[in-house]
Automatic annotation (TrEMBL):
PROSITE patterns: TONB_DEPENDENT_REC_3. Residues 306-898 form the TonB-dependent receptor-like beta-barrel domain. It is a multi-pass membrane protein. Residues 49-155 form the TonB-dependent receptor plug domain. GO terms for cellular component: cell outer membrane. This is TonB-dependent receptor. InterPro entries: Beta-barrel_TonB, Beta-barrel_TonB_sf, Plug_dom, Plug_dom_sf, TonB-dep_OMP_SusC/RagA, TonB-dep_OMP_SusC/RagA_CS, TonB-dep_rcpt-like. It comes from Chryseobacterium pennae. Residues 1-22 form the signal peptide. It is found in: Cell outer membrane. Belongs to the TonB-dependent receptor family. Keywords: Cell outer membrane, Membrane, Signal, TonB box, Transmembrane, Transmembrane beta strand, Transport.
Length: 954
């Protein structure tokens, strides 16, 4: 194929073996294309991209708007180098977690700071993708340090749409409908296979008793053969469903000579893949700006969000239907003869649907601002922002439900929780922007002041002994027996400034500093300074640079300090006294925490060096960055002597380092009259090392099988090293040659690390990979006339997952009559026998000692979870103009999300992410689950979504 390209300035290029010839562009065309300079957001302002000397990634608005997604975060998957986006599961309204350049905290937040229209937010949940005008991700300290004590994990800047002055009224409407299903259905044993494994486990035990290698059980009745019930239940059929998702939004923009506005209203409704799991969210946004004179204007950016969820039990809850459907025996029936939910020795998955829960949030926020230019070069801005979020949560376990029983009799339990979270922000900035020496020297100086305060208030009340199954409110409870209420506040006072200088568009310098004071710490430790500086050299603008096909070549370097106070308790540096009652219901007060008088926030030091290269009339764009980021004064609760009356103390203890490289390539491969082809790719490598944690042992375990250890990465596992399965009798011996343990053929062998002949905690080994060190994304778009096709993907390399659920569901039926073992995954059928030796699944066995040995927390359950996931495929058709004069454009499209995943991981989802939904995530509480990533607890997996949609502009 030989395709002519009008804008390349080289003779020939080769793309995937096909020669592509090129012809030079006309000078007047090139001039027109270079007249528009891209502008990007930076902290408290905007800047020409050519002048940027920090590491900033721009996410274009069309990436967020052309494809239906439930959240902004999902649209970022695989789109930006250095940015890891993990979907925490397939629950409706599910949360998505973002990490920028690794994780650098143990107990404070690892989440980035979100700035929406200049206002710090705790998430992007109040934002619709269709409302976004531009988005920038500030990754290095020089770009982010202007936000000081909250910027160690990077900053995401978002600007919403605002209309245009002298713009004609315009209306846009978008709608989509999709169906969603589980990304991969788990493979479980049917009733016949389930019985077979139990029969083999029983027989193996009997054989070992006869051979004298195993002691008989205390109760021989446990070896009673499993009966054939004639029942074969696929519990997933009773738990899973084909869900749906609808997304509708309408927006209106208008602008006159002195005013402009943007209004939008949208609604998303989701039916999750788990029966009864429903979520809906409605958003309204109004942005208005009014000029009173050429040099004075005021405005407001406001929003209202309402969400309502009817969630099923959480992933870490006893009655979670999905995990119980994995474990429920297939030879039992879901319903009893009387039609009621069946009772047996395992949690019936259907019990999870009995609890009635409604969880509703209402959030309203606004940013009022005024901008005054006393002279052209000076801009004064003042703004007042506020947010109020209120919650109403009602839970009811009806008297006739499993959880509503008391000692086997109908009883009933209920709870009602409320929350009222408020914050307000006052900011004032002054900026000076002027060119000197015929604009060869450009100077921009900005100084500002900020004050923000948070108040979190919550209350709860509980009741029991309900009169009816149909009255779920506490007014119907016979006993209202428990209640609680709390309020806590915190504030942050800041001063900041930045100076930017550019000479002849060649040499760029930026210096900034922020001085933050937090109420969370004691006097003497509550103030911190966060300076930063960056340099840029646009080599392509030098006289000596004579490379015709290079449009821009810029080198960058930066260094700066940032902090982390998000997620640190509101009174971290102070000793608290708690009040309440003792067991005799007598009121009293007691010291609640042991304070550390020298406690301070975490501080990050970051160096970045990079280059930006644009070639062939900006047809090929390359960005490369190297960074080295160290977070010190890590906050963690260290164990202390019990004689103090406390078990731990929050302390500044250690250091974590993240270093890596990022590469991003964006190409416009073909630009024909009708046919166009774009391709983009990004790659990131992050090496995370815990350098110091302050404990004598240099390590501590954290949740399940995870460990934090000096010299290792966060997301590491602490496991026995499973060597394989003994093919014949195997003996462990101590250093004197004495036999200390005998392993029979078909059972596991673990590495005796210290050679003492015993397998104990001293033989556990650290394995990395819970957080993938390499990751990135791929994207390509084909356009022919009015038809377009886009394909996007993300990948992860070096990722490991500990399949913790297999400890019970690939355990070889260790439990006999009358309970028997939970159901197992299909891999269990590959168990070891004398005729099936090439396997890593040991022989089934009902002896508790043998089963416990074979199912130790080991590398047997640690799997390679590298993956390439096609995140979305979208095909669309654009009607530029229609016969209906009032329709300016219309687009129809069809999309499938997560259609294909290529991985060796045997579980359902290699993106498995444990997330404790009981955690409060705000300025005072942190989600620390990122440091124990890579553990598959059998949570609800991700979904495939098949959607059709339409966008219309009037």
């Amino acid at each position: 194929m030989n395709v002519k390209l009008r804008v390349l300035s080289v003779g020939a290029l080769f793309f995937i073996g096909n020669a592509v010839s090129a012809q030079k562009v006309k000078k007047d065309t090139a001039a027109k294309e270079t007249q528009i300079e891209e502008v990007v957001m930076v902290g408290y302002g905007k800047q020409k991209k050519s002048d940027v000397s920090g590491s900033i990634t721009t996410v274009k608005s069309d990436v967020l708007q052309d494809k239906p997604v439930a959240s902004v975060e999902l649209a970022l998957q695989g789109k930006a180098p250095g940015v890891q986006v993990a979907n925490t599961g397939g629950r409706s309204g599910n949360e998505t977690k973002i990490s920028i350049r690794g994780n650098g905290s143990l107990s404070a937040s690892n989440n980035p700071l979100y700035i929406i229209d200049g206002v710090p937010q705790e998430s992007l949940g109040n934002l619709s993708p269709e409302d976004i005008s531009s988005m920038e991700i500030l990754k290095d300290a020089a770009s982010a340090a202007i936000y000081g004590s909250r910027a160690s994990n990077g900053v995401v800047l978002v600007e919403t749409k605002g209309g245009r002055y002298n713009g004609k009224p315009a209306v846009s409407f978008s709608t989509s409908y999709g169906i969603q299903e589980i990304i991969k259905r788990p493979r479980l044993l049917n009733a016949q296979q389930y019985k077979q494994v139990h029969d083999v486990a029983r027989q193996n035990y009997l054989n070992d008793i006869a051979a004298g290698t195993a002691a008989p059980p205390a109760n021989m009745a446990t070896l009673t053969p499993m009966p054939n019930t004639g029942i074969d239940t696929d519990w997933m059929d009773f738990v899973l469903r084909t869900g749906s998702v609808t997304n509708n939004q309408v927006s209106f923009t208008a602008g006159g000579e002195s005013s402009k506005m943007y209004f939008s209203a949208g609604h998303i409704g989701q039916e999750g893949i788990i029966r009864g799991d429903d979520f809906e969210i409605s958003r309204v946004r109004l942005n208005v700006e009014q000029k009173f004179a050429d040099n004075f204007k005021i405005g407001v950016n406001s929003y209202f969000t309402y969400s309502s969820a009817k969630p099923v039990a959480d992933d870490n809850d006893t009655y979670q239907p999905y995990s119980n459907a994995m474990a429920a025996p297939p030879n039992l029936a879901p319903y009893a003869a009387n039609g009621k939910i069946n009772r047996f020795n395992y949690n019936n998955p259907l019990w999870g649907f009995e609890r009635q829960v409604t969880d509703k949030w209402q959030t309203v926020g606004a940013n009022f601002f005024a901008i005054y230019n006393p002279i052209k070069e000076i801009t004064l801005k003042t703004s007042l922002s506020g947010n109020i979020a209120s919650r109403r949560y009602n839970r009811f376990d009806a008297p006739n439900t499993r959880r509503g029983e008391r000692e086997g009799q109908p009883w009933g339990y209920g709870a009602y929780l409320t929350a009222n979270n408020r914050d307000y922000l006052i900011e004032n900035t002054a900026a000076y922007d002027k060119g000197f020496f015929d604009n060869r020297l450009k100077v921009n100086v900005m100084v500002g002041q900020s004050f923000q305060r948070w108040d979190y208030e919550d209350s709860s009340v509980y009741g029991e002994n309900f009169v009816s199954n149909d009255l779920p409110w506490l007014s119907a409870a016979g006993i209202v027996n428990k209640g609680d209420s709390n309020i806590y506040s915190m504030a942050l006072y800041s001063f900041f400034g930045r100076a930017q200088v550019s000479w002849e568009n060649k040499y760029h310098l930026m210096v900034s500093t922020r001085y933050d004071g937090s109420s969370k710490f004691r006097d003497g430790y509550r103030w911190g300074s966060f300076p930063a500086a960056s340099l840029g050299w646009t080599v392509s603008n030098e006289e000596f640079f004579k490379v015709p096909f290079i449009n821009e070549f810029k080198l960058r370097a930066s260094y700066g300090l940032t902090g982390n106070q998000t997620g640190i308790p509101y009174s971290a540096g102070m000793q608290l006294i708690s009040s309440g009652e003792n067991q005799n219901q007598e009121p009293g007060m007691a010291v609640l925490t042991l304070n550390s008088e020298t406690l301070k926030w975490e501080k990050g030091k970051s160096f970045d060096a990079g280059l930006d290269l644009s070639m062939f009339n900006k047809r090929v764009n390359l960005t490369v960055d190297y960074y080295n980021k160290t977070t010190s004064d890590l906050l963690y609760r260290l164990p202390i002597g019990q004689e103090s009356g406390f078990s731990n103390r929050l302390s500044n203890i250690g250091t974590i380092n993240n270093k890596g490289i990022e590469i991003s390539v964006d190409t416009k491969i073909i630009r024909g009259e009708k046919f166009k082809w774009d391709f983009g790719a990004n790659f990131s490598y992050n090496k995370n090392v815990v350098e110091k944690i302050g404990t004598k042992s240099g390590q501590f375990t954290t949740g399940f099988v995870s460990i934090v250890k000096e010299g290792e990465a966060l997301g590491s596992f602490y496991l026995y090293d499973a060597v394989g399965i003994a093919q014949e009798r195997y003996e462990y011996k101590d250093q004197a040659g004495n036999v200390t343990k005998v392993v029979q053929a078909g059972d596991m062998i673990y590495r005796d690390v210290n050679g003492d002949g015993k397998i104990d905690t001293n033989d556990r080994v650290v394995f990395n990979g819970g957080i993938a060190p390499m990751y990135g994304g791929l994207s390509t778009t084909f356009t022919y006339d009015k038809l377009d096709l886009s394909i996007n993907a993300q990948y992860s390399i070096g990722k490991k997952i500990y399949a913790m659920y297999k400890q019970k569901q690939e355990a070889g039926a260790p439990t006999g009559y009358p309970s028997y073992s939970p159901n197992m995954v299909a891999d269990q059928m590959n168990y070891w026998t004398p005729d099936n030796r090439d396997t890593n699944v040991p022989r089934p066995h009902m002896a508790s000692a043998v089963a416990a040995w074979n199912n130790e927390q080991s590398t047997r359950f640690l799997e390679n979870a590298d993956y390439l996931r096609i995140t979305d495929i979208t095909i669309g058709y654009n009607f530029d103009k229609t016969n209906l004069k009032f329709i300016k454009s219309m687009r129809l499209y069809a999309q499938v999300r997560n259609p294909f995943t290529f991985t060796k991981y045997s579980g359902v989802d290699p993106e498995a992410y444990y997330y404790d939904r009981s955690l409060k995530v705000n300025q005072s509480f942190a989600d620390t689950s990122k440091i124990s990533s890579g553990v598959d607890t059998n949570g609800i997996p991700n979904v495939k979504v098949y959607s059709i949609g339409m966008n219309i502009n009037f």
